[in-house]
Predict the structure.
Amino acid sequence: MIDQTQYRSIVRASAWYDLAATIGFATPWSFAAVHASLLWLAQRWQLSGAFPAFEPVHMLTANLLGSIVTVWAILRIRDPQQQFGRYDAAARFLFATWQIYAVAHGANLIILGFTAMEIAFGVLQCLPVRSRPAGARS
């Protein structure tokens, strides 16, 4: 069991990770650079699985993901509430599920690096939090 201060630190850390990992997805121009970098890494490490070029509708989906996750991350950085951490944990388990599904259906293994972070932060944000004793200061 962790205390509320530790939990808020976990929520904030997960938000900083999200911001760093997804802000590049938020625009077509930045995503082109992120995609090229991930493709280079996948090829350099000789990871199996497809890593196709993105068509406009794929780019739109990536940009929507990057935009909403960036806003969600900023909210949690500024106000790392326990409630937000619990919702974020649920979202992380959904993301991990669909990432594993994609890899199982031929997507490049580089996705599993993101999956590991989703699962790790999801588990941390599911930890039980000790309530403050009555009359304790915040």
User: Anything to note?
Assistant: The chain has five helices and no strands. The chain has a mean pLDDT of 94. Helices lie at 4-22, 28-44, 56-78, 82-104, 111-124. Residues 32 and 49 are 19 Å apart (CA to CA).
